[in-house]
Amino acid sequence: MTALRMRARDFLTEDQLVDVRERVTWKGAALIVHAWALIAAAIALVAWWPNPLTYILAVAIIGSRQLGLAILMHDGAHGCLSPDEKTNLALSQWFCAYPLFAETRSYRRYHLQHHARTQQEDDPDLVLSAPFPITKLSYRRKFIRDLTGQTGYQQRKAQLFSALGPKDWPWSQRAAHFWEQLGPQCLTNALLFAVLAAAGVWWAYPLLWLVPLLTWMMVITRIRNIAEHAVVPDSSDPLRNTRTTHANFLERLFIAPYYVNYHLEHHLLFYVPCYNLPKVHRLLCESRHAGRMEVQPSYLAVLRLATAKPDQEDRPGQLVNSARRARAGVKVDANQQAGGF
Fold it and tell me: Which residues form the Fatty acid desaturase domain (predicted)?
């Protein structure tokens, strides 16, 4: 199957394209500052008023901003954080990717394949959407694994072992490979721990950085992956092989930060910075293409579509296969963890 090819000028006028393509450094930097400010505020809330409710709230806020940093890293991979590539890469790497144990340039190489072959047999992100629809029981098991940190732990363990290289390599070669794969990420996280320790809240690193990274971020990353490409109407139509999902205030706060819900618009014009995607959506809704666009009213509506398979089809033998697939999932690399944008 081959996806239909459509040009940017099939959707917007030249003046509109010039407008939405504009990349402004201070706007990209402001979104990064916003993410870190919310993270700092959530940590301060728990330090000031420590109790189970504030902790759970902080984990949800920080996990959503960690996804937000991944989204902004993704903007950097498209060159959208700044018109200057050095500034763009510096912002994306040091303030977005490295704190999450990710890397912009390797993600960029991987991710552009997804844009070129969206929902086709050789789409590297097809594995994220192909299994759907699934049963509610199957999704419940995935949700529990994500929320309890099992998914995040397995992914990070696989990433660590991959960075260490084969056991038969000399120690010096393994050390060099580890630094190449995870060195700046570990350095950035050590600096983050040092800053928190200097502020008198060293415990915030394991409890309010690593825990959200391994739990809530995994939950909403799966929801985002589902919303973007699962159970779409037509894998060959660029207006229908990806999806935009309307998000209310709470969804934007806890599930879909920084305009990630405008995924159809991003795929049509992937060089548009995220803060201009709502404008693209409005222009498309006023165009002749409005009726063809795959748009859902909420993330709950998308999850209903994605879990529409009858529970009777989730038989005991399939539970074993699900467990095997879950174990196989640890082989997903760091790029695919952030994939699907």
Answer: 51-284
Full domain range(s) for residue 305: 21-149+181-327
**Is position 173 within any domain?**
no
* CA dist., res. 138 & res. 124, Å (int): 23
Burial (CB count <10 Å: 0-12, 13-18, 19+), residue 201: middle
- pLDDT of residue 100 exceeding 90, the answer is yes
pTM: predicted TM-score of the whole model, two decimal places: 0.92
Q: What does the radius of gyration of the chain's CA atoms come to, in whole angstroms?
A: 20
Q: Give the residue carrying structure tokens 């779409």.
A: 232
- Residue whose C-alpha is closest to residue 5's, from 254, 318, 268, 253: 268
| Tokens matching residue 286 | 């006023």
Where are the alpha helices (H) located in 255-315, listed in sequence order? Answer: 263-268, 277-285, 299-306
Are 209 and 142 spatial neighbours (Cβ–Cβ below 8 Å)?
A: no
CA 136 to each of CA 43, 141, 224, 304, 308: distance values in angstroms, whole numbers, following the listed order: 34, 9, 17, 9, 7
Residue 154 lies in a domain: no
Segment 249-259, tens digit of pLDDT? 999 999 999 99
- Among 140, 126, 153, which residue's Cα sits nearest to residue 319? 140
139 within domain boundaries: yes
Q: What are phi and psi of 209, to 5 degrees?
A: -120, -55
Distance between CA 93 and CA 113 in Å, rounded? 20
pLDDT digits (tens, 9 = 90+) for 35-94: 999 999 999 999 999 999 999 999 999 999 999 999 999 999 999 999 999 999 999 999
- What's the number of domains the chain is made of? 1
Instruction: Say if residue 330 is exposed, middle or buried (CB neighbours under 10 Å; 0-12, 13-18, 19+).
Output: middle
Per the DSSP assignment, residues forming a β-bridge with 245 are 296
Alpha-carbon gap, residue 176 to 180, rounded angstroms:
6
